[in-house]
Amino acid sequence: MKFLCLPGAYGSAKNFQVQLGPLAGELERRGLCTFSYSQGTHEVDPPQGWEDYFGARPLYRFLDTRQGDTFETLRKLRHVPHSIPAEDTMRMFQKAGHGEDWHQRVWREALDAVFKTLDEDPEIDAIIGYSEGAMVGASLIVEEAERAKRSGCQRRIKFAMFISGAPPLKFEGKDRIVAQLFDEAGIVIDIPTFHIFGCDDAFLSSAVALFNVCEPSKSTMYDHGLGHIVPRDAENVGVLGDILQEVIPQVEEDNRKAAMKEEGEEGSLGGIDKSDFAASGDFYTFSPA
């Protein structure tokens, strides 16, 4: 399995390789997967007051923010109690904004750029996304499924890991981009997914909203007990390695069986469901010894 790695806002391929380094190294050591690092196409300066937070420059966004940005609005999520349903929290901030004629164009350009990266490496069959990168990755998975329905082309992405993610976006009307939420759209991501987040994440609601729109029988979540970060400590990395040691081979085996079924080389194997996906639908939380 080869992952396309998508960093968060104000990140870069180089910085994300450092952030993800301990976990990626652990998974590579176990022979589970390889990684290809990408980044947004728009070079940006960090927000005022955050100049030293995001690491070495240059920094990038997937979204062209020259005409506007939602960073300050999203920061307000940290003040929302976690007791409010995730979908209600996301709607609270969506309704505060108004569509602009450039919103859909910017989002389409961002998705097309990631699809171009995907097309340039035929070995990629999975995605790891952190924060904004998780939102982009989730949206790409939904878009790829829609394109497959229209054209009959094969879907590339068979597995996704989302770290402190956010739900996929969709076009609404002529000028709005809104999140796809479970109580409105239902399940929109049907491939196996692995969700990593921390109970102290100020943006926990967005990660939960993403988890909720993923097929529950194929989803696993892990709470590392920290904040809006990529876990790098030895204890969490070791536990994640053990869990993914079960999850990734099972996903690959299920994908192999599905491919054989499509080619008519096997009888009725069924799809990936909770009964044969060993770690699916599970919730893991880190408890230090």
From TrEMBL:
InterPro entries: AB_hydrolase_fold, FSH-like_dom, LovG. The keyword Hydrolase applies. GO terms for cellular component: cytoplasm; nucleus. Residues 2-237 form the Serine hydrolase domain. Residues 258-289 are annotated as: Disordered. Transmembrane segments: none annotated. This is Serine hydrolase FSH. GO terms for molecular function: hydrolase activity. Keywords: Hydrolase.
